[in-house]
Every structure is written in structure tokens, then in C-alpha cells.
């Protein structure tokens, strides 16, 4: 009975790491679609979102069945409750990749990014993929130090996001209001993606230590 | 023992309805701060967010202690798991009100909204307050029909959001890129606020019927 239980608990963890992997793939593809104005890849991201919702519904059912059948206590219980919250975060990460892909589709065959912004978004995309990968590692290892590392990467993302907004709100902005709106939203999608990865790390620390690290500050944008 | 248990379960529901109330208050205040360029009220929203995080942490601890001590099964278990997910949604609703308030603070003493947009945002604010109030009713009653009503209000919000974006992306837009960025983000904050209220309704249906209604579609913006 205990063996079966620990196997099911491990499987719940596996579902969550699979969701992290999937969100890394989706934001990676969405970024490439954005940089190349690649409609086909954008459509793929949009249709792949069905895998996110299916996987997250299955993970939640697994958590409920663990709670119902095994009646876990103490550490295992916290771990399952953390998983339930993390499922919500990683689901949103997938949805944010879809938001990026939908802007690409909306503007196709035009490129969304004005010339000169490709490098910035390639970098935001790279950090997002890395954050999802590190969230996966944290979920697998439960290591509070690795979780703290997520915050450092998020700080880099926040800095890029702030600089992007400074450019958009500058009086010298010369790409028009439409492009500014698209870039503001894209910037926000990447920044929120990062926030959710950090939130997963915060939950893992909670799970390991029983104490929630302070909330992330709510930014201006 | 059972009496104590049902009392604690009821208290968990009360925590969630209090969070809905608080998010209604915050988005209502944030909207008034936006319409009146009222810095003091914006600051109040920002500092009131501490009550959201405190209340949501307490609600989550209550859920964990219910799961640990009472080992509920079947309907009660689903209800507690739904609560855990809803706490996340209503926390975000509070954070979105703070986002609105922070834009007001950032632009003060200027008004964020260009002339002619007050009515639109007053209406989006009104619907947001109503949605939070109705989410509270749904949490209290568990009524799937009332939960479906949330979706109808959300459709109205989505329509306003789409019309706002059409105006922002129109070549005739004459308020500059900075105002377009602010309005795009504000529009998104209200629309996301509504989505979270709908998500709470979706969870309540899950709790009542054991089946999750289909996910909301991920929009373009």
C-alpha cells in the first residue's frame, strides 16, 4: 500500500515536471514564431495548448485521488497542496505562450516586432525557456537554493521588461501606437511567464520548509 | 468532531467569500482612482493588497489543516481542492486591481485616460465589481446556474476589451503611443480580472458536479 502510494506521489511530481517541459517548449516555439513571423509554428503552439489542459486536468485528478485514497499527512500533504497550486501556475505559463503565438497569427504575414527589437525578445524568450527548465529542476529536487536562483533570473527579466517600457513610453518612439501596444503586451506575457516560474519555486520552498517566502511585489506593469 | 469539522469547512468558505469581497472593493477603488486621478485612493488600494495576501495565506493554511486533521473524502475533498485553486484566482484579482492603481500613481497628477474613455472604463470597473460580487454568491451557494451567469458578464467584458483594442490599433488613433500602451494594459487588467471570476465559477461547478466545464479560450490579447 505504501509503495503504491509513493509511486502515485512520484507520478504526480512527474506530471508537474512534464507540464514545466511543455511550457518551456511552447514559449520556445512561440518566441521562434515571433522572431521568424512563422505562422505554422504559431498555429502549432496554439493547438499544443490542448496538451497543457489535458495534462493539468489529469494531474489535478491524480492529486485528488491521492488525497482521497491515501489520506496523507504532514510533508506529503503540503507537497500535494503545493502541486495543486503549481498546476495553476504552469497552466498559465502555457496560456501565455499561446498569447504570444496569437499575436504572431494576428499580424501575419507582417512581423510583429519593429526592426531592432529581435535581440531583446530572443533574449526574453531564452530566459523564459531557462526559467521553465529550472522550475522543473526545482520541482524534481525540492532544492530551496535552486528556487532562489529562479528569482535572480526573474530579476533579469524584470530589468529587460522595464527597459522595454521605457522605450515604448519615450517621446522619441517612432514605430506607432499599434506596435507599442503589441510590444507592451508581449513584454508583459514574458514577464508574467517568469513570475509564474518564480511562484513555483516559492511553493517548493514552502513544501520543503513549511513557510512561504514573501510574495513577489506587484509591479507597475 | 463532525460539528467542529463542518464549522471549519464553513470558515474556509467564509475566507474565500471575504477575499471576493475584498477584490470587489479593490477594483472598485482602483477604478475610481483611475477616473478621478486620485492618488490617495490609489495608494490605499496598493497598501490594502497586504490584506489580500494575509487572508489568502490564512485560507490556505485552513485548507491544509482541514485536509490533515479531518481527512475528508468525496464531495468535501473536491470542495477543499476547489477552494485552494480559487484562492489563487482571487489573489490575482486583487493583484490586478493593484496594477490599475500603480498606473494611476505612475501618471499622477496627469490623468491616465484620454478624454472620451472615462465611460468605457467606468463600465469595465462596474462589471468587474459585479463579477467579484457574483463570484462570492457562487462560492456561497455552489449554484451552477449562477456560475454560468458569470460567463455572460465575462462576454460583455470581452466585447468591451475587443472594441478598446480596435480603437487603439486604428490608424486614426491620435493620443500617442504612451496612452495606447496604458490603455492596452488597463484593458487587459480588467479582462483578466473577469477571467479569474469566471474561473472561480468553473471551479464551483466542478465541486458541485465533479466535472470541469471546458476551459476558457485563450484570447488574442
UniProtKB/TrEMBL annotation, chains A, B:
Q: Which is one Gene Ontology cellular component term of this protein? A: cytoplasm
Q: Which residues form the PhoU domain?
A: 17-104, 122-204
Q: Name the principal localization, coarsely classed.
A: cytoplasm
- Provide the alphabetized UniProt keywords: Cytoplasm, Phosphate transport, Transport
UniProt cross-references to InterPro entries, sorted A to Z: PhoU (IPR028366), PhoU-like_sf (IPR038078), PhoU_dom (IPR026022)
Q: Name one GO biological process term.
A: phosphate ion transport
The entry's localization annotation reads: Cytoplasm
SUPFAM superfamilies per UniProt: PhoU-like
- Short name of one Pfam family: PhoU
Q: Gene3D superfamilies given for it?
A: Phosphate transport system protein phou homolog 2, domain 2
Role according to the record? Plays a role in the regulation of phosphate uptake.
Oligomeric form and interacting partners: Homodimer.
- NCBIfam families in alphabetical order: phoU_full (TIGR02135)
Q: Which family does it belong to?
A: Belongs to the PhoU family.
Q: What is this protein called?
A: Phosphate-specific transport system accessory protein PhoU
Name of the coding gene: phoU2_3
